[in-house]
Amino acid sequence: MNLSPVVIAIPMYFILMAVEMITLRFQKHPGYRLNDAITNINCGVISQVTGVFIKVLSIGIYTMIYEYLAFFHIPNNLWTFLLLFFLYDFCYYWAHRKSHEINLFWGGHVVHHSSEEYNLSVALRQSSTQTFWTFFFYFPLALLGFDPVMLVLASGINLLYQFWIHTEAIGKMGFFEKFMNTPSHHRVHHGRNPKYIDKNHGGTFILFDKWFGTFQEEEETPTYGITTPVNSWNPVWVNLAHYATMKKELAMIPNWRDKILYLFNKPGWLPDYLGGYRAPQEPGEDFRKFDTVVPPTFNWYIFFQYVFLLVLTGFFLFQVNSLDGIVILGVSLMIIWTTISFSGIFEKRSWFYPQELLRILAFAGVCILLFSSLIPTLILGAALAIYSLISFAWLIKNKQLKSKISTASL
Questions:
Q1: Domain that holds residue 376
Q2: H or E stretch including 81?
Q3: SS3 helix, strand, coil % of the chain, rounded to 5?
Q4: Residues ≥6 apart with Cβ < 8 Å to 112
Q5: Spatial distance between the Cα atoms of 19 and 21, rounded to a whole number of angstroms
Q6: Which residues in the chain come in under a pLDDT of 70?
């Protein structure tokens, strides 16, 4: 069983999001859009699923350094864990800061900033590639001799702490803000306004930003998002869009020296002969959030399907350590396919209807594979048959609404 604090906390995430929605409603704040919130969670789902494979790289190498190169082997107790937690956040600060200041690394972090809303669901909008650019920032902790198990625990708690600060429902918090990261501090971090960009990188503590000159107080309300909006609800494309832009811009640069500079300079950098650095600009009066509108019946259809996706994903993440490699790969691909299918509905893609019919059958098959040893065959088969029939009936009944879906295609 996967006992990661992040996985264990999944039910609490959704409870807190429900509480936030209610609070924002009382505050007469719009707060959530279904397409944005689903995309946020989809990015988190894919990040957790792909993390099953990537953690071999990050934790595996950390463990090797700890076992063979560590200067000490620090004992595990409360005091050493508190020290590790503080040092972990110090390493996190630099990993996070460099993810903003190096173009290649930004490709792994931009996912988290690409939502144009700011609510608890944004905390779940995590990248599937960021680990490649940040895992080595924690190697000094391995050299010092901090146990890999304790590192995983510190990492999980650090990430859990950052969940609650993604909200507009909480204002400033007085004395607490002098040393801890708070919703106010982190709203600044998610602003695309020039004065807010590349500020407040701390995870749990705000001390490092104050010590190293990257702190910014929240003043006017930020405009959230990134300076080049991704304009998509597809979580796979959200993860790849910046790399696609990098590929195009690298093709414009004629020599290898400038190509390397492009990779490791700040996002927005180009050689002088191509126009030079493109500084971020204030959002104009014509700024509008990316949005698409589909008939309400499709929103309800996605919500219905999403309940089943979350059950499948939650069970998969809890049980992943007991599954064989082929099953892990198959379930992972099924989960990713489902998130892409939802984006096809939100984005009014012409391909969503035929592949969704096929996806329902494949989804039922994966559920049989995963749950057959836990649920009697007759009950499981009946439940999945009802699920499939409801899904097909919903799609067929509303097929005429498909005419309202544009013929846009990839």
A1: 296-404
A2: helix 78-101
A3: 65, 0, 30
A4: 122, 125, 126, 127, 130
A5: 5
A6: 1-4, 399-410
Q: Are 43 and 111 in contact (CB under 8 A)?
A: yes
Question: How far is Cα 289 from Cα 37, in angstroms, rounded to an integer?
Answer: 14
Q: Are residues 187 and 313 in the same domain?
A: no
- Quote the DSSP letter at residue 156: H
Measure the CA–CA gap between 320 and 210, rounded to whole angstroms.
40
Say yes or no: 206 and 309 in one domain.
Answer: no
Query: 222: part of which helix (H) or strand (E)?
Result: none
Tokens of 286: 């014509």
User: Is residue 281 exposed (0-12), middle (13-18) or buried (19+ Cβ within 10 Å)?
Assistant: exposed
**CB hemisphere CA count around 258 (13 angstroms):** 15
Q: Are residues 202 and 94 in the same domain?
A: yes
What pTM value is reported for the model?
Answer: 0.92
Is the CB of residue 156 less than 8 Å from the CB of residue 6? yes
Q: In whole angstroms, give the CA distance from residue 396 to residue 214.
A: 54
Alpha-carbon span 150 to 83, nearest angstrom: 11
Domain end call among 178, 196, 212: 212
**End-to-end Cα, the chain, rounded Å:** 39
The 3 state secondary structure assigned to 282-349 is CCCCCCCCCCCCCCHHHHHHHHHHHHHHHHHHHHHHHHHHHCCHHHHHHHHHHHHHHHHHHHHHHCCE
Condensed to tens digits (0 to 9), the pLDDT of residues 43-87 reads 999 999 999 888 878 899 999 999 999 999 999 999 999 999 999
Q: How many domains does the chain have?
A: 2
Q: Is the domain of 206 the same as that of 67?
A: yes
Has residue 291 been placed in a domain? Answer: no
